Amino acid sequence: MVVIKEIETRSILTKSNLPVGDYSVNPYVGCTHACKYCYASFMKRFTNHAEPWGEFLDVKHWPEIKNPQKYCGKELFFGSVTDPYNPQEEIYQRTRALLKQLQGSGIKLSIQTKSDLVLRDIDLIKSFPDARVGFSINTLDEAFKDDMDKAVSIERRLAAMRELHDAGIRTTCFISPIFPGITDVSAIIDRVKEQCNLVWLENLNLRDGYKAVIMDYIAEKYPNLLPLYREIYTDGSRLYWETLDRIIRTCAEKSGLEYMWDDDSMEKPFDAPPVIVNFFYHEEIKKSAKKGGKTNA
Ligand code: SF4
């Protein structure tokens, strides 16, 4: 059972230092997709909820945004610590309300979701310049997906991605998190390459409470992979990721796709083949970029 509360917040736009947007927007606190590997579950510490992550949801209400035009040209990223199209959005419509408030402001919209509920707002989304919608897809195996999250099936996400792309909206396939030995990156790219503009790769990080959850899961369901997981997550080896990086680079070359560390997909024509962006170890990349370091491969 999900505990739902409606709350008042002072503001809905948060200045962001994420590489994906100037502002992050989270119309909810918590996320009922309840992914086992959720990086956002640290948010629970900042709530008064005793329920486990995935079993509570605060529905935000915020004051009217005065002069939304002042955000013109800025990129707003919807969904850094929640899914803006969690199933409760169907009832509360807070994401939809915000899109309506921002219509005509000239902001660049970037939405990240695991739900095809986003299709409800397709006309609204289309009215924003340079909008893009990303779907998290880290497997084509529905049984593994069901073990990991309570969101809609992979097939429904793929169908939604196709529909948005056919409607002229830029789409991203966010292959994240990549589970060593489980996520078949090449197969996913092959499946989505005709219906997305960007493929974004992120490795599985294991930290906090969910490290034990994932390691226990691997021990139970994929015991043959346990030595590999220990090598990566106990011994700190990067060999798996370095090898995967080389494999993807070769696949990309064979398929005529660009493979890089920086996302320039917005500069490409809509019907250009998707760009593949490697986001492995992005926290280090971010630090290095802040210091003026080079992030290109
Ligand atoms: S959809 Fe995203 S925010 Fe929601 S539980 Fe999954 S990883 Fe966390």
From TrEMBL:
A Pfam family this chain is assigned to: Radical_SAM
Residue ranges annotated for the Radical SAM core domain, each copy included: 17-254
Keywords for this protein: Iron, Iron-sulfur, Metal-binding
Gene3D superfamilies: 3.80.30.30
Protein name listed in UniProt: Radical SAM mobile pair protein B
Organism in which the protein naturally occurs: Yanshouia hominis
